[in-house]
Structures are given as structure tokens and as C-alpha cells.
Structure prediction request, 222 residues.
Amino acid sequence: AQSVSQHNHHVILSEAASLELGCNYSYGGTVNLFWYVQYPGQHLQLLLKYFSGDPLVKGIKGFEAEFIKSKFSFNLRKPSVQWSDTAEYFCAVRGDKIIFGKGTRLHILP
Amino acid sequence: NAGVTQTPKFRILKIGQSMTLQCTQDMNHNYMYWYRQDPGMGLKLIYYSVGAGITDKGEVPNGYNVSRSTTEDFPLRLELAAPSQTSVYFCASSYEDVGLYTFGSGTRLTVV
Prediction:
């Protein structure tokens, strides 16, 4: 059965720290992969996506993610976080259907 | 370009009451979706539609109904509100069913 797992439920970092949020999925076929972000009090918006091609994808606000097919992973990274990155981050996988992870709450200390 | 518009933003219902959550998109998207978001649980698909006149159940459809009479509108109906339906509801639309969603701003519903 298709599934997606986000390893970190709550992450607290100081400004300028590096970020990596884990996302793993299970599905036997071709997938589309997404990271969505939800800033406090706002709706979800697309951060970045992978459909095919270069497994390292770049999104908005300096975020990037790398698709490692052998590890069924699509981890989100940012080299230096800002206070404004405080938000909840959702990984999503589209195999035969789209499934969202449970989310990771990121809190950046000023 | 308004995107996806949801109304109301907040609502408190008593157990057993009914209400309709409205969702309208102006992007001429064929696909529309209703999700509920509960803390620590991510998003669960309630219902979806692939075009006007066509709807189907998602993962958690019980207690809800939908209709899609036009491309633009996809209302979600709660007939007999229960405390378990306390949640934040998001409507989304997409041009293709590949996961690229435009979300509405959400409706925070409390059933007491």
C-alpha cells in the first residue's frame, strides 16, 4: 500500500542553522513528489515538486529537495533558515493517489 | 485572479446542525478536492471531483456530501454535525490530477 512518512514531527532551530526534513515513501511505481508549506494562519502552498529529470529540485525561498530513488526519500533542505521559515511542512507523494505526510512543525528561534 | 475561495472562514455548530462549506475556483480547473486537517494527522481526503457532475469518495467521506453542478463550485455539506467533525477544512483545485494543488484559505469548524 502507498504510504508516506515524515520523520520529524516538531523541529526547533536557531536562525542561520541548516535544515533537513526527512520524507520517505512506499510505492512500487513512478511517483510525483511534493513539499507544501503552511505558514501560521495561512493555507498550504507549494514549496517545490519533482516529476522527473534532475533529482535535485529547487523551490521558493531557498529550499531544495533531493529525490533518492533507491532510498524512497525526498528530503527537504535549506542551508540557512530564517525566522520567517517558521511553518508546518508537508511532504506529499502521488503514486496511484496523492497522500500527504502528517507534517513537520518547524519553529525558528530569532 | 482570486484562485480558490472558501467561505466561511470560521464556524461553530451545535451537534446535529447542518451546514454547507462553500468552495469556488476561477481557474477553470477540472479537479477539485475537499480535505480535512487535524493536528498531527496531515490532510485526509474527504471527497473529490474530476469535473462537473462527477464526484467520488475519498479516504474519510462519512458524514459528508458534495455536489459539482458547475466547474467553478464544489460545496461540502455536513448533514448532522458531530464533534468528530471539528477540524480545519481545505478545498483545493488542480488542472490535472498530478498533485499540483491550489488550496483555499480554509474553514475552521468547531462542533459543540
In short: Chain A has a mean pLDDT of 95.
